[in-house]
């Protein structure tokens, strides 16, 4: 009963429009005070959670992606991929998915990928006669790769909350990320030949020299991505140090070599990154207070006991969690979902023998779905803004991708080595 009352109160505050951080803090304080715990413990819980070396990577990744966005680097990468794929039917859609995958290896943010690739790919695809719903759905779904392919901000937060290795979480994200890219590409090819893309004309072919020039312009961006990811897996630096290295390389590239960003744009990138970071860390701190309250009320243990008595198979547990996360994803941001739900579910994983690393990838896949489902799917609004189209058209475009992503959840459930092979063999 306590669990139901507490969660109902939290949902009521959220549905009333009160910000997530304030809602979590208010409920957490109420729980702590009701048990007679000294108020002095609340500031300690609030501030202690943000004192983390792992979370230092978050503002660095955000700043890197914002600088790349302001510098217009997406055009170089998109042109390079398109130069290799543009002479086949649906080639621009294929180039879009591949560009999203590469930029995901730098930014760690789905919204940043949507903004960067969307501003380039949407005009390119619509001008060539691609079906507009197909265009918007491809961009919105492709950008979700930003939080699955490492480095990923949600994976960093998950690792911190679940007390897992960030490197293991990053390694676990590679297989499912490639799986999702492959499934998206298959759909793009099928949809293109079903009328979603125009028939390729003679003018679509690209000569070798133009292809070489386009590839050469994109090499620095690809090099930054490989340096960041390769350095982590080679043990040269931690994920946080990788974020710092990526930021330095990005600054050198856009300021010294490309010279495509001015001081005012750099200042805007820093301000926007700082604002987003403060929002995220405020939610992290508030969730820690809320987590302290639910621990004092033994809610995670009550939920675990209920699951042990009523849910008897791992598959049924995953289906129930999927339903809960789908519902929460309709009105909660991904990081908030991790911070609210994960502490409650963690004790239940051992009951069904579910690996916490695998569960983290499953959780992030469900967050990806939240990014492209209304009413608060952020990618939908980014693509709507860039494409200047009604929201309902964007939603219709992402429906096939929602089905694909749901299918990918079941694929990694029945074939868990897609997730677990690299973390436990490297």
UniProtKB/TrEMBL annotation:
<feature type="transmembrane region" description="Helical">
    <location>
        <begin position="6"/>
        <end position="33"/>
    </location>
</feature>
<feature type="transmembrane region" description="Helical">
    <location>
        <begin position="218"/>
        <end position="236"/>
    </location>
</feature>
<feature type="domain" description="TRAP C4-dicarboxylate transport system permease DctM subunit">
    <location>
        <begin position="8"/>
        <end position="418"/>
    </location>
</feature>
<keyword id="KW-0812">Transmembrane</keyword>
<feature type="transmembrane region" description="Helical">
    <location>
        <begin position="317"/>
        <end position="345"/>
    </location>
</feature>
<feature type="transmembrane region" description="Helical">
    <location>
        <begin position="167"/>
        <end position="190"/>
    </location>
</feature>
<keyword id="KW-0813">Transport</keyword>
<comment type="similarity">
    <text>Belongs to the TRAP transporter large permease family.</text>
</comment>
<feature type="transmembrane region" description="Helical">
    <location>
        <begin position="134"/>
        <end position="161"/>
    </location>
</feature>
<comment type="function">
    <text>Part of the tripartite ATP-independent periplasmic (TRAP) transport system.</text>
</comment>
<dbReference type="InterPro" id="IPR004681">
    <property type="entry name" value="TRAP_DctM"/>
</dbReference>
<comment type="subunit">
    <text>The complex comprises the extracytoplasmic solute receptor protein and the two transmembrane proteins.</text>
</comment>
<feature type="transmembrane region" description="Helical">
    <location>
        <begin position="280"/>
        <end position="297"/>
    </location>
</feature>
<feature type="transmembrane region" description="Helical">
    <location>
        <begin position="398"/>
        <end position="422"/>
    </location>
</feature>
<keyword id="KW-0472">Membrane</keyword>
<feature type="transmembrane region" description="Helical">
    <location>
        <begin position="242"/>
        <end position="259"/>
    </location>
</feature>
<keyword id="KW-0997">Cell inner membrane</keyword>
<protein>
    <recommendedName>
        <fullName>TRAP transporter large permease protein</fullName>
    </recommendedName>
</protein>
<feature type="transmembrane region" description="Helical">
    <location>
        <begin position="357"/>
        <end position="378"/>
    </location>
</feature>
<dbReference type="InterPro" id="IPR010656">
    <property type="entry name" value="DctM"/>
</dbReference>
<keyword id="KW-1133">Transmembrane helix</keyword>
<feature type="transmembrane region" description="Helical">
    <location>
        <begin position="93"/>
        <end position="122"/>
    </location>
</feature>
<dbReference type="Pfam" id="PF06808">
    <property type="entry name" value="DctM"/>
</dbReference>
<feature type="transmembrane region" description="Helical">
    <location>
        <begin position="53"/>
        <end position="73"/>
    </location>
</feature>
<keyword id="KW-1003">Cell membrane</keyword>
């Amino acid at each position: 009963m306590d669990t139901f009352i507490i969660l109902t109160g939290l949902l009521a505050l959220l549905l009333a429009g009160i910000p997530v951080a304030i809602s979590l803090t208010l409920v957490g304080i109420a729980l702590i005070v009701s048990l007679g715990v000294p108020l002095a413990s609340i500031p300690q819980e609030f501030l202690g959670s943000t004192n983390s070396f792992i979370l230092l990577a978050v503002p660095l990744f955000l700043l890197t992606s914002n600088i790349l966005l302001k510098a217009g680097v997406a055009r170089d990468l998109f042109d390079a991929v398109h130069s290799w794929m543009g002479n086949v039917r649906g080639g621009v859609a294929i180039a879009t998915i591949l560009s999203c995958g590469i930029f995901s290896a730098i930014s760690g943010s789905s919204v940043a990928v949507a903004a960067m690739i969307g501003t380039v790919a949407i005009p390119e695809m619509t001008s060539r006669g691609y079906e507009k719903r197909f265009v918007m759905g491809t961009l919105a779904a492709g950008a979700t790769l930003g939080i699955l392919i490492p480095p990923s901000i949600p994976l960093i937060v998950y690792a911190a909350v679940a007390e897992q290795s960030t490197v293991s979480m990053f390694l676990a994200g590679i297989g499912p990320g490639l799986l999702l890219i492959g499934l998206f590409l298959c759909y793009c090819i099928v949809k293109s030949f079903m009328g979603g893309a125009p028939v390729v004309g003679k003018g679509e072919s690209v000569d070798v020299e133009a292809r070489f020039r386009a590839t050469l312009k994109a090499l620095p961006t690809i090099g930054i991505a490989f340096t960041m990811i390769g350095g982590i897996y080679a043990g040269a630096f931690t994920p946080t140090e990788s974020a710092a290295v990526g930021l330095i390389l990005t600054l050198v590239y856009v300021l010294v070599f490309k010279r495509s960003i001015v001081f005012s744009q750099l200042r805007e990138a820093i301000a926007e990154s700082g604002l987003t970071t403060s929002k995220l860390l405020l939610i992290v701190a508030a969730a820690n207070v809320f987590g302290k309250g639910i621990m004092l009320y033994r809610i995670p243990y009550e939920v675990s006991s209920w699951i042990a008595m009523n849910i008897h198979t791992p598959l049924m547990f995953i289906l129930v969690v999927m339903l809960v996360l789908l519902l929460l994803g309709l009105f909660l941001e991904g990081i908030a979902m991790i911070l609210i739900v994960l502490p409650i579910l963690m004790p239940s994983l051992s009951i069904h023998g579910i690996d916490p690393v695998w569960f983290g990838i499953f959780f992030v896949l469900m967050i990806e779905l939240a990014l492209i489902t209304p009413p608060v799917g952020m990618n939908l609004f980014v693509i709507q803004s860039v494409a200047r189209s009604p929201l309902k058209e964007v939603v219709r475009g992402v429906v096939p991708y929602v089905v694909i992503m749901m299918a990918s959840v079941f694929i990694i459930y029945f074939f868990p080595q897609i997730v677990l092979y690299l973390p436990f063999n490297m």
